[in-house]
Amino acid sequence: MRDATRSISPARAELARVSSFLRQELRPRGRILTPFNVITATLVLATAVILFFRFAYGLGSVTNLNQDYPWGLWIGFDVVTGVAFAGGAYVVVFLVHVLNLERYRPIVRVTVLNGFLAYVFYAGALVLDLGRPWNVINPVIGNSFGVSSVLFLVAWHFMLYMLAELIEFSPAIAEWLGLERLRRFLERMTLGAVILGISLSILHQSGLGALFLMAKSKIQPLWYSEFIPIQFLVSSVFAGLSMVIFEGTISRRVFHHRASASFHFSQERIVVGLSRICAGAMFVYLFLQALVFLHGQDWRHLTAGWGSWYLLENVGFVAAPCALFALAWRNRSTPLARWAAVLAMLGVILNRLNVSVIAWQPHAAVRYVPTWMEFVVTLGVISAEIWVFRWIVNRMPVLREEPAHATTVAPVSNAEPTHLRKEA
Amino acid sequence: MTTAPGQGRSACDRRGFLRALGVCGAGLALSPAALAQAQAEGNPYGVLVDTTQCVGCRTCTRVCAEGHGLPVPEDVCRERTTERQLTVVDGRAVADPRVDTGAVFVKRQCLHCLQPACASACLTRAMYKHDAGPVTWDKGKCMGCRYCMVSCPFDMPKFEYHSAAPHIRKCDLCADRLAAGELPRCVAGCEAGALTFGRRADLLLEARKRIATEKDAYHAHIFGEREAGGTSWLYLAAVPFDKLGFPGDLEYVSYPNLTKEFLYGVPVVLTLVPPLLLGIAKATHRDTLPATGGRRA
Fold first, then answer.
1. Are the beta carbons of B297 and A97 separated by less than 8 Å?
2. CA-only gyration radius of chain A, Å
3. With an 8 Å Cβ cutoff, are A60 and B162 in contact?
4. Chain pair A-B, CB pairs under 8 angstroms
5. Is the dihedral of CA A124, A129, A133, A136 positive or negative?
6. Looking at the predicted structure, is the pLDDT value of residue B135 above 70?
7. Are the Cβ atoms of A155 and B123 closer than 8 angstroms?
8. Is the pLDDT confidence value at B8 over 70?
9. In chain A, what residues touch B280 (CB-CB under 8 Å)?
10. Torsion sign (Cα): A397, A399, A401, A402
11. d(C-alpha A357, C-alpha B147), whole Å
């Protein structure tokens, strides 16, 4: 696998070392019967059962989708909302690798890993929703390119972006395996992958909004405008960064033992800095919303029930967290920033679900409400993602920027004891 | 629609000949040559539905089901097509002096837009607009994402939610029969004279003629002439179309137009953003990194 090795026997030794290391690493670690594990395992098992029925008897057997609501929770939440939350990766690599803001470097790997896994699992969720998933390769292998389709663009950008994120994260894998030369090779590709990834993100974050452009007569007018793509792009900035702040709070506690001292030390500065960016992005978003609202002459829609729902979304879950983020930045308050992040995330969930599900076909005879099974599958997908995330963070140098065991070619056995404490 | 000025005489003659062929299409068999001609001239086949002539016998729904291997539907009026019934007859009670029976029957099916939202939405080209007119679906290509359903302003594509290998179902304008030179089943089966098959340009002329000669019998609007950028199926009615359950909020431009600007932006972003980012990265790069700063970008 490694290209650089010249003679056979060192390569063989290296291979043997890596494979024995991998065998050790693959074993589960820590306590298995924790409440979190029991709950998520139940969800994943239930998901497997539900998916059996879904593939045996069709989507209608487990979902409430109908002819008026071709897309439900699995697309509206898992894909459309989940990808917005994964937007933190392209913003943070922009800060660190393009703007060279070293302050944010400690969170690059964990953010990219989160983004990558989000795409892997949400693209996976997309396949669950496909009626004829065996044809999913058609737009890939080139026998039928529907190039006029926004979804074609989004699908290709998903795939290419996953590759870009994998390249961005790959030095951590090489470090984990102790393959120093491979790490240096992979690291040289980082800037290229970052630049490609940011360009792809701009296009598919907005592309997810552009998917709904043709549904002009189906979305309640307060949520439809020709600017949906730009609104989705701008909101992906603060959606992603709010997720980074929120996830950082949890990771800091759960993976305390895996993080370097500088990671903990820099947390506050990072959160305050991200709060400032969020406040700015949300202000831009609000301004855009106001412009679209006035331009669309939507006053008449405000008096109906939809109007209050719209105001709740934009005042309660955009304007309010925007102000909170600004306060958090001014007072250098991490707790305030966390509350702002939670509110902002709820706002993004509301917005994406409004466009794709809630304000969809408001006059339909039968309104779509997801079945409990659709919720279980959504939670099961998230659980599986958290498992993989935890497995990687507990093994690879994700929360530490310069792990000792990778830069110096240490024997495998030395790499073990430090990670072993908590559950895995 | 009309012969373009400056076109040669032979083109005029051919047009005239084909027009005659098209208008008489209800009785004449189509030749493959004529079909090829329709493709070449961008003048697709279509059907004119004259709702003032429809008696609501629903023969069209029966022959359609039989022809497409679907269960013969209950003999009732329905508002909407389903994945089991590709065409329905919608019976509408209308209180209007122009409707002496008090009821208007509207056959509903896919309208086969000139620039269909579903076909432009399809990322595998499973939903495909043929030059001859029909928009058809290919089960070998479709991955079942249902973006066509999201996009269609008429909500015509229907999905088989209770199948492990679901199809998208909608009217295919009997594309197989058109290719063999035969009429669509519903048109062939209609004895009330409500359905006229022909080339769209000729159907528009025919519709205008009816509106002009019988001003009292028709509301002066041809549904499908401009709606959604134009459809292959055209409708005439005695009353405004919103009273007959036709969507009133349709665009007059084609629906693919709504995503055109976005798609044009894609190559612009892909060519301009990477060099810009590279420039910024190089401009902000510090040659001497702080000792704790780790790796080069």
1. yes
2. 23
3. yes
4. 183
5. negative
6. yes
7. yes
8. no
9. 98-99
10. negative
11. 14
Q: Where are the domains positioned within chain B?
A: 9-257
Query: How many other CB atoms are there within 10 angstroms of residue A422's CB atom?
Result: 16
Structural domains of chain A, ranges and CATH numbers in brackets: 32-401 (1.20.1630.10)
CA-closest candidate to residue A321, choices A246, A221, A229: A246
Average pLDDT over residues A66-80: 94
Cβ contacts (< 8 Å) between B120 and chain A: which residues?
146, 148-149, 214
User: Beta strands B233-236 and B45-50: pairing type?
Assistant: parallel
Of A56, A105, A131, the CB nearest to B294: A105
Residue A147, number of CB atoms within 10 A of its CB? 12
Integer Cα distance of B227 and B213 in angstroms? 24
* The amino acid at A337: A
**First and final CA of chain A: distance in angstroms?**
29
Instruction: Name A412's Cβ contacts closer than 8 Å, sequence gap at least 6.
Output: A17, A20, A21, A24, A178
**Residue A361 and residue A342 in contact, taking contact as beta carbons nearer than 8 Å:** no
Q: Are strands B135-137 and B127-129 parallel, antiparallel or unpaired?
A: antiparallel
Longest dimension (CA), chain A: 78
Give CA–CA dist A75/A49, Å, rounded: 20
The strands making up B45-50's β-sheet, listed across from edge to edge, are B195-199, B45-50, B233-236
> Which residue in A221, A189, A368, A195 sits closest to A307, CA to CA?
A221
Closest CA to A206 of A153, A253, A260: A153
From the CA atom positions of chain B, what is the Rg in Å?
24
Are the CB atoms for B98 and B214 separated by under 8 Å? no
Per-residue tokens: A47: 């998901």
Q: Which residues contact B128 (CB under 8 A, 6 or more apart)?
A: B119, B122, B135, B136, B137, B138
Residue A131 pLDDT exceeds 60: yes
Q: At what angle do helices A180-188 and A150-177 cross, to 10 degrees?
A: 150
* Strand boundaries in chain B, DSSP class E: 45-50, 88-93, 103-108, 127-129, 135-137, 158-159, 168-169, 195-199, 233-236
pLDDT in the model for residue A134 = 92
Q: Find where tokens 């008429």 sit.
A: B154
Q: Is A28 exposed, middle or buried (0-12, 13-18, 19+ CB in 10 A)?
A: exposed
**Tokens matching residue A336:** 């305030």
Mean pLDDT across chain A: 87
In this model, does residue A402 exceed pLDDT 60?
no
Contacts (Cβ under 8 Å, ≥6 apart) of B209: none
pLDDT confidence tier of residue B11, bands split at 50, 70 and 90: very low
DSSP states of A284-311: HHHHHHHHHHHHTT-HHHHTSHHHHHHH
Task: Report H helices in chain B.
Answer: 9-23, 32-41, 59-67, 117-121, 147-151, 175-179, 185-189, 200-213, 260-284
Angstrom distance (rounded) from CA B130 to CA B44: 9
Phi, psi of B106 (to 5 degrees): -125, 115
In this structure, how many other beta carbons lie within 10 angstroms of the beta carbon of residue A424? 18
The DSSP string of A86-120 is TTHHHHHHIIIIIS--GGGGGGHHHHHHHHHHHHH
Structure tokens at B162: 């209770």
Residue linked to tokens 């099961």: A380
Read off the amino acid at residue B16: G
Yes or no: say if A342 and A320 are a contact pair by the CB < 8 Å rule. no
Q: Which residue of B has its CA nearest to A142?
A: B124
Q: What is the CATH number of domain B9-257?
A: 3.30.70.20
- Label residues A397-412 b or e (16+ Cβ within 10 Å = b): bbbbbebebbeeeeeb
